[in-house]
Amino acid sequence: MDLMLSDTQEMIRDGARRFLADSLDADTVREVEASADGVHAEIWAQMAELGWTALALPDDIGGGGAGLADLCVLAEELGRAAASTPLVATAGFAAAFLRAVEPTAATRDLLSRLAASDAVITPALADVVGRDERSAPSSVLTETDAGATIAGAKAMVPYASVAQVLLVSLTTPDGEAAVVAVDRDAAGVSWARHGATGGDPLFHVEFDNVDVPADAVLARGPAAQRAIDAGLDAATILATAEAVGCCEAMIRLGSEYASNRQQFGRVIGSYQAVAHRLADMRINTDACRLLVAETAWLLDQGREATLEVAGTKVFANEVMVDMVHAAHTVHGAIGYTTEYDLQLYTRRARAFCLSHGDTDAQTERAAVALGL
Amino acid sequence: MEFEFPAEAERFRAELRAFMDAELPEWWKGLFHDDDRIYPFTREFCMKLAERDWLTMSWPVEHGGVDADVWSQMVVREEMWAAGEPRGPQYMSLNYIGPMLMEFGTADQQERFLKPMAAGEVMWCQGFSEPEAGSDLAALSTKATDADGCFLVNGQKIWTSYATAADWCLLLCRTDPGERKHQGLSMLLVDMNTPGITVRPIDSMGGPKEFNEVFFDDVEVPYDCLVGPRGDGWRVAMSTLAHERVGAALHARVKVLLDALIEYAITTKDENGQPLAMRPSVRSGLVRLQARYRAARLLCYRIVSAMAAGDANDVDPAVSKVFSSELNILIGNIGLDMVGARGQLTTGDGCAPLDGLMNDHWVHSIPQPIAMGTNEIQRNIIAQRGLGLPR
Ligand SMILES: Cc1cc2nc3c(=O)[nH]c(=O)nc-3n(C[C@H](O)[C@H](O)[C@H](O)COP(=O)(O)OP(=O)(O)OC[C@H]3O[C@@H](n4cnc5c(N)ncnc54)[C@H](O)[C@@H]3O)c2cc1C
Are the C-beta atoms of residues B265 and B259 closer than 8 Å to each other? Predict the structure, then answer.
C-alpha cells in the first residue's frame, strides 16, 4: 500500500497547477462560458503540446505511457481552475473506448491522432429521448454498398463544435448495438449548443443520412457494449477527479471567506455552524479523491472495477449535492452573485452529479456488481 | 383543532385560480426571470387584484382592506407563490410594509402610503442589508444626518431586491449615535426618484433580476418620512422582519413541483419501458417530499393560527423558515436526480425535461436558506429563545 502521490503525479500536479495559474483566471472562464464553442482552446492546445492529453496512452503509439490514475491528477487541477476542456471526452472516453475495441487500421489511426495532436474525439451516446449514455440508441445504422449510413439525433454531446470525430452509438436493423466513428465535418452532420448549467459545452447533434465508410464501424454487438462501458468507466472516474477539483476550489473559497468575513464582531469561521460545514466538505472531498485514485488504479491494472466505478460515482453524487449547498451557505448572499467565483464551481459540481451516470443508474450497476 | 380551510376560503381559492388562469400571460414563468415585461405586468396585475379587493384582503377597511380572515389571506399567498409570485414586489407591501405603517406610522403617513399600496399602484423595496451588515444587521452604517429641514442620507445598501423597479424604499439607517449598535437607528421612507440615489443591478445565478446595490449620495429625505420614533428603528425593523417571515408561503411552490414530478414519473418510461414511477428511488423520493410538504404547510399554518389566536411567538416562524427553505432545496435535488442527465439543460432547450422546471427551481432554491435571515441565525433563535440555551 502506498497512498501517496508518485513522483510523476506530483510533477503533473505541480506543473498543471502552475500552468493553469499562469494561463487561466476566473474572468477567462466566464468569457469562455459565454463563447460559442465554450472551450478553452488554447489551454487544450498547450496541454497537447506538453503531452498531457496523451499522458495515459501507451508509449508505443506515442503516448506518455502513464495511467488513468496519473490523468486523474491532471483532471483535478483542471477542475480547480474550472477549465472547460475535452479531457474527459477525449483522453477519458475516446482513448479507453478505442483501446477496448478490436484493433483495426481505423482505430490505430484514431489513437495515433490522439497521441500526436490536440485532436478532439468525443462520444455521441445519449439519445434525444433516452435517459443517458447507456440507454439504447434510437439512431440507426444501415449497411450500404459503399459502407453504411447513419440517421438520427444525439443529445448532450460534449465539445461537438470543436471535435474532429464523433463516436456515435447506434442500433442496427437487427437490433444490434454498433459504434461508428463519424467525421464531424461529414455531409449531413449538424449541431446546436444546448443551454446547460455545467462547465462542458453540450450539443444536440443531428445525423441526416450521413454516409460513412465500412471501416468506420468500430464495434458491434456485445463488443460494442463492452467498449462503451470501458470508455464510460474511464470518463466517469476522470470526471469525478475533475469534480473533486471543483470541491477543492469550493473549500478554498469558503475557507478564505470564512476567515475574513466578520459579523457580530467575529470572523464567521469561528461559528461552528459555519466551520463544521467546511470541515464536512474537507472530509467528503478527501474520501472522494481516495476513491477516485483507487478506482483509477484498478482500471489501470486492467481489473474488473464496475462496482468501484459505480460506487464511487454514487458516493460522489451524494456528497457533492450537499457540498454545493454547504458552500453557498458559508458565503451568504455573495456566493449567489455571478461576480463571485463560487458559482463557477457549484454549477459544475451539480451538473457532474447528473452526468456520467446519475445516481439511479450507477446504483443499479453497483448493486448488480455486488451480487444483488 | 380543525385541519381544513373554511369552505369560504376554498371557494375563494377556486375563484382566484380561475382569475389567474385568465390573467397570467403565456410568457409568465415567475418573478425572477429575466424579462422586461415582468415588473410592468405585476403592477397591472396588482391593480386588478385590488379592484376585486383581493390585494390587501386582510387589512382593515379603513386602510383599504376588507378585514378578511387570515385563511383567505393565506389562500392568496399560496396561490401567488405557487404561480411564481405575479404580484411582483408588492407582496412585501401587503405582508409587512403596510402592517408596519399601521403599527408605527402617523395618521398622515397611513393616509399617504397605505392607499396606493391597497390600490396596487406602488412598488417598494427593502433597504436593510449592507456589505458589512448581513446577519449582523445592527452593524449597518448608512447615515441620515440633519440638514436644512430634512435628513441627508449617505451610504450603501446591498442585496436590495426589486430596487430597479421600486418607487419607494423602506430604509433602515443610523440617525443618532448610540451606546449600543441597536440604538440610534431609524426607519425612513425614501422616494426612489430622489436625486442622489443610484441603483446597480447585481447579476446572480438566478439572473439579473434578483438583487441590486443601492447607493445614497446626499439624498434629501423629508422629516415626515421617518416612521416610528427617531432612534428606535431597531424595534420597527424587528417587527417588520417578524411579519416578513410569516408572509412567505414557501411550501406552495413545493406543491406545484411535486405535482409536476408525480405526473412526470407516471408518464415517463425508463429504458426498460417501465414508468419511472415504478422505480424504488423515485417512489421513495416522492413520498419523502410529500410528507415534508405536509409538514411545511402545517408549520406555516401554525404561525397564522397562533397569530389569529393572539398567541404569536418568534420561534415558530424560525422553525417554519428553516424547514421550508430546506425542503425547497431538497425538492430541487430530488427532482433533478429524477429527471436525470438532461436535468442540467435549461428552460427553453428542446431537450430539457419539464422545460427545465427542476433546473430553474434548483437555481432559485440556492439562496432560500440565506434570504430573510440565514438558517444558521434562525437556528440560533430556535436554540436560544425556543430552547433557552445560553447564547
Ligand atoms: C435572494 C436574496 C434576496 C435578498 N433581498 C434582500 C432585500 O430585498 N433587502 C435586504 O435588505 N436584504 C436582502 N437580502 C439580504 C439577506 O438578508 C442577507 O443575505 C442575509 O441576512 C445574510 O447576510 P449575508 O449575506 O451578509 O451573510 P453573512 O451574514 O455574512 O453570513 C455568512 C455566513 O455566516 C453565517 N453566520 C453569520 N453570523 C452567524 C452567527 N452568529 N452564528 C452562526 N452563523 C453565522 C451565516 O449564517 C452564513 O452562513 C437578500 C438576500 C438574498 C440571498
Answer: no
Residue B132 known to be catalytic: no
Average pLDDT over residues A109-115: 95
B288 falls within a domain: yes
Which residues, in sequence order, are bridge partners of residue A176? none
Superfamily of domain A7-115: Acyl-CoA dehydrogenase/oxidase, N-terminal domain (1.10.540.10)
Topology of domain A121-222, CATH? Butyryl-CoA Dehydrogenase, subunit A; domain 2 (2.40.110)
Residue B208: CATH number of its domain: 2.40.110.10
Q: Which residue of B has its CA nearest to A155?
A: B351
For position A135, what pLDDT does the model report? 85
Instruction: Number of A to B CB contacts under 8 A, please give it.
Output: 128
Residue where one domain finishes, among candidates B175, B204, B231: B231
Distance, CA B134 to ligand 1 centroid (Å)?
Answer: 5
What pTM does this model have? 0.97
Q: Domain check: are B156 and B206 in the same one? A: yes
The residues, any chain, with a CB within 8 Å of residue A325's CB and separated by 6 or more, are: B329, B366, B369
What's the average model confidence in pLDDT over B92-102? 94
Among A268, A276, A325, A337, name the best residue to mutate to test ligand 1's pocket (greatest count of ligand atoms within 8 A of Cβ): A268
For residue range B192-225, what is the model confidence (pLDDT) as tens digits? 999 999 999 999 999 988 899 999 999 999 999 9
Domain ends where: B39, B66, B88?
Answer: B88
CATH number of the structural domain spanning residue B271: 1.20.140.10
Q: How many domains does chain B have?
A: 3
Is the Cβ of A363 closer than 8 Å to some Cβ of chain B?
yes
Together in a domain, B222 and B150: yes
Residues whose beta carbon lies within 6 Å of some atom of ligand 1? A 261, 263-264, 268, 271, 273-274, 329-330, 332-333, 336; B 125-129, 134-135, 159-161, 210-211, 367, 370-371, 373-374, 376-377, 380
Q: Which of A136, A198, A328 has its CB closest to that of B366?
A: A328
Taking the C-alpha atoms of residue A345 and residue B203, their distance in angstroms, rounded to an integer, is 17
Q: Calculate the average pLDDT of chain A.
A: 96
Q: Within this chain, do residues B254 and B362 fall inside the same structural domain, yes or no? A: yes
Residue ranges matching CATH 1.20.140.10 in chain A: 224-369
Q: Grade residue A365 by pLDDT with cuts at 50, 70 and 90.
A: very high
Give the ipTM of the model, two decimals please: 0.96
Q: Which CATH architecture has domain A224-369?
A: Up-down Bundle (1.20)
pLDDT digits (tens, 9 = 90+) for A268-297: 999 999 999 999 999 999 999 999 999 999
pLDDT > 90: what percent of chain B? Answer: 88
What burial letters (b/e) apply to B340-349, b meaning 16+ CB within 10 Å?
bbbbbbeeeb
Host H or E run for residue B302: helix B280-308
- Residue A188 sits at the vertex; the CA angle it makes with A186 and A191, to the nearest 5 degrees, is 90
Strand partners, B201: B212
Contact A96, A229 (CB under 8 A): no
Q: Residue A92: in which H helix or E strand, if any?
A: none
Give A184's pLDDT tier (boundaries 50, 70, 90). very high
Q: DSSP string covering A134-164, please?
A: TSPP--EEEE-SSEEEEEEEEEEEETGGG-S
User: Which of A273, A343, A358 is nearest residue B205 as measured by Cβ atoms?
Assistant: A343
**Range(s) of the domain holding residue B188:** 126-231
Helix (H, G, I), strand (E, B), or coil: what is residue A301?
coil
pLDDT single digits (tens) A188-237: 999 999 999 999 999 999 999 999 999 999 999 999 999 999 999 999 99
